[in-house]
Fold this sequence. Notes:
Largest sheet: 5 strands, antiparallel
Oligomer: single chain
Strand content: 5-15%
Structural class: alpha+beta
Amino acid sequence: MATFLYRLGRLAFRRRHFFALLWVALLTLAGVGAASAPAPGTTSFSVPGTEAQKAFDLLEERFPGMSADGATARVVFKAPAGEKMTDAGNKATVQKTVKELADGSEVTSVADPYEAGAVSRSGAIAYASVRYDVSGMELKDSSREALEDAAEQARESGLTVEIGGDALQAAPETGSTEIIGIAVAAVVLVITFGSLLAAGLPLLTAIIGVGIGVSTIAALAGVLDLGSTTSTLATMIGLAVGIDYALFIVSRYRAELAEGREREEAAGRAVGTAGSAVVFAGLTVVIALVGLAVVNIPMLTKMGVAAAGTVAIAVLIALTLIPALLGYAGRKVRPAGQKSRLLGGGRAAKKPARPNMGTRWASFVVRRPLAVLLVGIVGLGAAAVPASSLELGLPDDGSQPVSTTQRRAYDLLSEGFGPGFNGPLMVVVDAKDSDDAQAAFTETGDRIKALDNVVTVTPAAPNKAGDTATITVIPDAKPSSATTEELVHAIRGTGAGITADTKADVLVTGATAMNIDVSQKLNDALVPYLILVVGLAFLLLIVVFRSILVPLKAALGFLLSVMAALGAVVAVFQWGWLSGLLGVEETGPVMSMMPIFMVGVVFGLAMDYEVFLVTRMREAYVHGEKPGQAVVTGFRHGARVVTAAAVIMMAVFAGFIGSGESMIKMIGFGLAIAVFFDAFVVRMAIVPAVLALLGKRAWWLPKWLDRSLPNVDVEGEGLRTADDGKDVAPDEEKDMVRA
């Protein structure tokens, strides 16, 4: 592989015009496709194989005019102090608002609070339910504006009016801190390279890669049903890995220049060695992201595949566009140890009087491996302790910032009707095979009323055929509580008895039940997903490192970092530690897809640092250094670059903490803290400590396995052998001697 990539790097350097035009053309094509693509339709959320989804599908079949997937809104009214919603003036205002809402072109029904019994016992709060014939993402802006205008007019009469539900659903707004994250990355690159031009190359190529990836997602959004979160995730991961991959190749290019090689040769060698590590690091990320398909949640699968595509683009850009741009830059990209005229007067940096920080740290770890290993494991173990209290759920309006009307409507409904009112359960009774459908409906309602933690059970509402009915159940606890989850299981347990007695199937659905089913499905899929992703990556790393223990150590270290990161997420988003600093306005259960999502993404990113750092160690080892010295050599060449890469990745992810979407905020924080734990504790401390303790055993591989594995030559040994065996010109020979 190293030889192939070496030739590719030299080709891209020589044919720089062709490769630059190729990537500009791809960016233009993707941009035109995104601009000309029709507006995306509904972004569906389905969870095949769950009871809630089965009930939803049944509603679509048996209640064709119901628009079960249509947007809904609850316009909540609160009377001024000392007044009631039943007062004549307030009642007239509400009824006028209901009439205005009913005139909407996409509105299918509006329930008058006074006819539907939607007035609280105290009389202070009432609500009107609005149902639309399209989903929240498909709803026209004019319909949203009409909803907000009607609420504003009602406020002018002195009422407090807020709007809940998914009718106001829109694409999440991300924070300006994303720009800060990119700015931090730029500063780190300038410090690392000592050159504005060299620092700009990784940023430029990463932006091009993300532009192509996100534009392609936008172009295909309508066809493939891709949501806004998909492009946000692709941007987050694409920026991080795009900068990192380019950083490693540019860094290796400058190191090759410092050894006296010609620029084209240096570009070829940089792509042949660092590029090989980029390919395998990218493969681990792609495996982890595509592996999300194992969960069998279409939305999560699409997010993973789209992000994996962006990572693949980042790898291709690093291998082809970076050497092409290095060709354009010429002598403006200086060898390692030299700074630009702007930053250092163009003078070569003085040789340090003592070894660099990476060398000193690695030497310390090699001398005290057991102590460093214990401190690292104990520290990560302490950070992972909160993960034992992990509670899972999906965000609802209760997790929105208090500044939003959705959150204020949620709080008003809880105040007027109880916390469970925001999470009603819909029970679907399929009595098609029952001898007496009406008796089955009645018995189902009666049995549910007898359960604990039930506030209200509405009478059964059958369809036109009379073979299916819906029953609404209001719990006495909030939607995300364990009590409500127990009630869902209790209703389903009761349904088994009803089926035995009446031959009618009883299914529980609704947003709350769907959240519970999603959480359970994700929990059930976590272990198979871990086995698949870690197993495939383990095999891949055996090929890369030609070792059994090094990949095993990499996988175990990843588990430590991901558990510590989950512990930090629980501490902030569930316990509320530092919540004010991070803008977390409402604590509660951790998003149910967070554990499996973090496992996938963090594993891929963790293997980046493992590959980049340990390949340098193996390169030194196979070239004759002792195991301990090889660890030090790997850190001397790689620690500075890996540190810069980790800081950049943390900055990019942390930038998404400013998002107003709780899901994006949590993902940004989780990935940023996971990179910190993995890069600075696992890869920088635990990995060298373990390798020092193992010695030569770290690189052991059974002879039969060594013979059967393909030789991918990540270390570039083939390039060195080729150099040793060819005739070189005098100038090139001098270069080889200096190398």
